[in-house]
Each structure stands twice: as C-alpha cells, then as structure tokens.
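Sample entry was shown:

___
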Amino acid sequence: MTYVITDKCALHKECIDVCPVEAISVPEGATKAEIDEDLCTECGECAEVCPVDAPVLKDE
C-alpha cells in the first residue's frame, strides 16, 4: 500500500521536505500535495511530519 494525501492537506509542505524519494509534489494550481504512487516506498515519513495528518495509507 502506498500513501495518499487527503483533502485535509493545507500545503504546509513538510512532507515534501522529508520524502526520501521525492514522490510528493504540488502540481501548479493544486490545493493539496500529491504523492506519486509509483515512487512512494511506504516509509511513512510524510505521515509523521504532517501537522494535519493528511497523508494516509491508501486502501487497496
């Protein structure tokens, strides 16, 4: 399972800074960050640092 970012995202961007594989980005004009599921290694770093608990494990 990979992580996904929920609508709770407030673009604090701590997750982007800690992602070891650079799987998280904010597309131009987006209101929340996105995780590239092909790059995500499920390390959980993003979930640990997010102040609003926006990254969650994706239910497959």
